[in-house]
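User: Hi! I have a protein structure encoded as tokens and I'd like to know what sequence might fold into it. I'm fairly new to this, so please keep things simple.
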């Protein structure tokens, strides 16, 4: 029986065809899972810096740092985690999203190239992100970053890793995270929600692709062994988290798990803002940024960040100037 499901916004037109994702096709798809960064930097007065941080097991974790050429001291920082279902993508994927915040807020953007599944499994991916975040906090003065204004953000798998990273930093007591922005985040390995069932074999990231991504990252872990840092939906405690922004579309696999995560943050006494965009498919605002729904989603995130950052008056002025 096929479940009824919310339709895609017709302004998107025909969605791109999605090949079946499996071990064989993954190697063919990976080279196309990111875009060159240079076109995104054209016309922007941005300084770029490349760094290598070592993981706990000695592996190299590349970081790219993008700073406004005229940045003020004590700038906010966006620590960006790319999407790709845990199995593809790199630190330049969807970088146009945080670069908009560089434009609006004078933010320094740090993007991390965590290792991918299935070559890396379990907590390796989130630990790689944590090493990058620690480096960023430790070099805040050198980078011109306000250590009290570090925002963790990511899309899709990167949104799930951002949520896991925020839990990890909370439990280890460092570094301080001012806010987390979870864009259509991949939060629940169980893949059992109504929205997951509705978008089986349908959409840009169908249930079957999601199952493959989770199988790849979980490796030999059984269901009861999956830590909340890997699959944040199973974390026992969501208290003590920073202000959180979550969004997704009505027409995607992650809709219901994202709503549930926001609900659990509220239940724990935390502050979360949730937006579920009618007719939005997975990653709609990244693939079609000029469509009205996408523009509204991007604008809403930026306005939320402006509110979060209002304790620093010069940041509000920067936002107003670019509206």
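Assistant: Happy to help. Inverse folding works backwards from shape to sequence: for each of the 323 positions I chose a residue that suits the local structure. Here it is:
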């Amino acid at each position: 029986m096929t479940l009824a499901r919310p339709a895609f916004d017709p302004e998107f037109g025909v969605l791109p065809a999605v090949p079946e994702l499996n071990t064989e096709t993954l190697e063919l798809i990976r080279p196309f899972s990111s875009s060159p960064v240079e076109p995104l930097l054209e016309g922007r007065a941005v300084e770029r810096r490349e760094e290598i941080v070592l993981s706990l097991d000695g592996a190299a974790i590349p970081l790219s740092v993008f700073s406004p050429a005229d940045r003020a001291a004590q700038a906010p920082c966006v620590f960006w985690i790319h999407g790709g279902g845990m199995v593809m993508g790199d630190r330049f994927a969807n970088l146009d999203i945080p670069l908009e915040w560089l434009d609006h807020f004078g933010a320094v953007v740090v993007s991390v190239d965590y290792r991918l599944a299935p070559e890396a499994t379990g907590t390796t991916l989130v630990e790689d992100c944590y090493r990058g975040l620690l480096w960023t906090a430790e070099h805040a003065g050198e980078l011109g970053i306000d250590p009290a204004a570090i925002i963790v953000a990511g899309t899709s798998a990167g949104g799930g890793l951002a949520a896991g990273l925020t839990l990890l930093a909370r439990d280890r007591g460092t570094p301080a995270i001012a806010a987390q922005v979870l864009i259509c985040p991949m939060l629940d390995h169980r893949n059992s929600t109504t929205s997951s069932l509705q978008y089986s074999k349908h959409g840009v990231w169908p249930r079957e692709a999601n199952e493959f991504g989770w199988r790849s990252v979980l490796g030999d872990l059984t269901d009861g062994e999956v830590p909340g840092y890997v699959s944040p939906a199973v974390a026992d405690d969501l208290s003590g988290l920073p202000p959180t922004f979550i969004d997704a579309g009505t027409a995607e696999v992650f809709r219901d798990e994202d709503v549930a995560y926001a609900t659990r943050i509220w239940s724990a006494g935390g502050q979360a803002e949730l937006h579920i965009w009618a007719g939005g498919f997975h990653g709609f605002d990244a693939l079609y940024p000029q469509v009205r729904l996408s523009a509204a989603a991007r604008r809403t995130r930026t306005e939320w960040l402006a509110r979060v950052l209002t304790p620093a008056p010069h940041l509000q002025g920067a936002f107003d100037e670019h509206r």
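A useful reference point when you look it over: The chain is about 35% helix and 20% strand. Feel free to ask if any position seems puzzling.
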